[in-house]
TrEMBL record:
Its main location: cytoplasm. This is Sulfur carrier protein FdhD. GO terms for molecular function: sulfur carrier activity; sulfurtransferase activity. Gene3D superfamilies: 3.10.20.10, Cytidine Deaminase, domain 2 (3.40.140.10). It comes from the Bacteria. It is found in: Cytoplasm. Keywords: Cytoplasm, Molybdenum cofactor biosynthesis, Transferase. It holds the Pfam family FdhD-NarQ.
Length: 303
């Protein structure tokens, strides 16, 4: 596997519309897959693609913070989202620059004013569940009750089916190589950003980083989609991103459900084709496309 050459800095101009001071970011993309030799059940040799997992050690103001295992498709947005979702920074405007160098497997973050009490705030780590094992800092649950999601946000059932179908038809690394999770952000029913990584927590952090770098998103309700299960970490991060509805191809954990109920998040799981289970806040769903059971005559949809 050949890694790309050392990335060169890319310096966004301050936003003319908002006056924000966006950080300078490199654009250190890396191959998502690599070819390996295999032998099948008949003893026949061949080649297949597998995900190109790699380690990325994050340094903040020259202090080592964490090592993330990632595909490396959007490492700068991943690091930004990680810092935001861990609430180590309040905004990307607090960061002066972020440089990723795959030659040494490192991301160097330079903040504008430092991170207050970073040693105390990162002392307690919790190992998260699932593939692409990650860690979060112990204070992630501290302010969950302060999260406020849009009270009137709803998702039409027909839009839910469209979202699931959009993901199903998309060309993905998973279809080529397997062993990865995908996450996507939809706004007003339209796909805004799609990302795959070895862990669902990396994918949601990458979307958070991408969102933070946008001046504004289109009007409409935000919906988050993930192929991974809805753990407490995934639910909290989605809520922190201001997303009131989350759809998963998998299920939900007990703690994930408890957090979703507390913050008013509509958690939908087992979403495949026309099937799904809503675990919390079903009042956010507009049932306008109820499937007709076999042998039952169609009924009028709910307006």
């Amino acid at each position: 596997m050949t890694l790309p050459e050392r990335a060169h800095p890319a310096t966004p101009e301050p936003s003319a519309a908002t006056g924000r001071r966006l950080p300078r970011l490199t654009q250190a993309r890396a191959p998502l897959t690599c070819e390996v030799a295999v032998t099948n059940e008949f003893g026949v040799a061949g080649t297949v693609s597998i995900p190109a997992e790699r380690d990325l050690t994050v340094y903040v103001d020259k202090r080592e913070l964490v090592t993330l295992m990632t595909l490396g498709g959007h490492p700068e947005w991943l690091v930004l989202g990680y810092l935001l979702n861990q609430r180590l920074v309040a905004s990307v405007d607090d960061i002066e620059s972020l440089t990723v160098d795959w030659d040494v497997g490192a991301a160097s973050v330079k903040t504008r004013h430092g991170i207050h009490r970073i040693e105390d705030r990162t002392a307690h780590k919790v190992v998260t569940t699932g593939c692409g094992q990650g860690s979060v800092f112990g204070h992630l649950m501290d302010d969950v009750d302060s999260i406020r999601l849009p009270p009137d946000a709803v998702l039409r059932q027909s839009s839910l089916y469209d979202i699931v179908n959009t993901i199903r038809l998309r060309d993905t690394t998973y279809k080529v190589a397997g062993s990865v999770h995908a996450c996507a952000l939809f706004v007003g029913g339209e796909l805004q950003f799609f990302v795959e990584d070895v862990g669902r927590h990396n994918a949601v952090d990458t979307i958070a980083g991408w969102m933070a770098m946008q001046d504004r998103l289109p009007d409409g309700e935000k919906v988050f989609y993930t192929t991974g299960r809805l753990t407490s970490e995934m639910v909290i991060k989605s809520a922190q991103m201001g997303v009131p509805v989350v759809i998963s191809r998998s299920g939900i954990t007990q703690m994930g459900l408890e957090v979703a109920q507390r913050v008013g998040l509509c958690a939908i799981g087992r979403a495949t084709h026309k099937r799904f289970l809503c675990y919390s806040h079903a009042e956010r769903i507009v049932f306008d496309a109820v499937p007709t059971p076999l042998g039952v005559a169609p009924v009028a949809a709910v307006a």
